[in-house]
Specification:
The protein is an alpha+beta fold and about 220 residues long. It is built from five helices and twelve strands.
């Protein structure tokens, strides 16, 4: 687990730490640098409900949109269908917090956690488990910045995640990361596969993104 860090002295230092996110996504209560995982849960359980990631003691509201949610939901469904035949672990969605370090909580849009990463005595009602996913998926939102997503990807691999998929709905591409810096960019003409994390899982990227974009029954 990481040791505590001092609260940022300036706004510039704060943005540098957490990845240059838009200031309107940064919560000031509790003061940046002092927030804890308990604050994440309090906001997620509050009225109105707010999903905030925790980055070095700073609460950052999760960026999400309607299309991004549809893309993530369809992928989650397809992975669950795969797991009906290959019972390897569990899947969480965008409102499932992952406690990756003392000062780090992330909400991947889709995550797969192998059974091997879950303690045998784990409580299924744990509200914010520290079970490390093998796969983390993020669907880009207009509010996301490059530095934010670079920081997030580094966080995932530092925590032990083995595979990260970044979905760009605008460009219709999937960036497949096997380390923070090793990436293969797939287009809608390609097939996405689960590598050794979800062996045998395959998905037409075009079919997936077309289904998420469809708002009416096909003719």
């Amino acid at each position: 687990m990481a040791t505590a860090t001092l609260p940022p002295a300036t706004l510039a230092e704060l943005l540098e730490r957490i990845g240059d996110v838009a200031p309107d996504r940064i919560r000031l209560q509790p003061p940046p640098g002092t927030a804890t995982p308990a604050d994440v849960l309090a906001l997620a359980d509050g009225e109105p409900k707010r999903l905030c990631e925790l980055v070095e003691g700073v609460l950052v509201e999760k960026a999400m949109g309607h299309q991004e949610s549809r893309i993530a939901m369809i992928l989650g469904q397809l992975i669950l269908n795969y797991l009906q035949e290959h019972d390897l672990g569990i899947v969480t969605g965008a409102d499932g917090p992952h406690h990756l370090d003392d000062q780090l909580v992330r909400f991947p849009d889709v995550a797969f956690i192998p059974y091997d990463n879950i303690p045998t005595d784990a409580d299924p009602e744990t509200p914010m488990p520290d079970w490390v996913p093998a796969l983390a998926v993020e669907v880009f939102s207009r509010a996301n910045t490059k530095s934010e997503m670079d920081r997030k990807r580094q966080d995932y691999f530092d925590a032990g995640v083995r595979l990260v998929w970044y979905v760009d709905p605008k460009r219709r591409t999937i960036s497949v990361y096997t380390s923070p810096d090793e990436v293969t960019v797939l287009t809608e003409d390609d097939t996405l596969d689960g590598a050794d994390v979800l062996p045998g899982f395959q998905l037409s990227i075009r079919d997936w993104l077309d289904r998420a974009s469809r708002l009416h029954p096909p003719p």
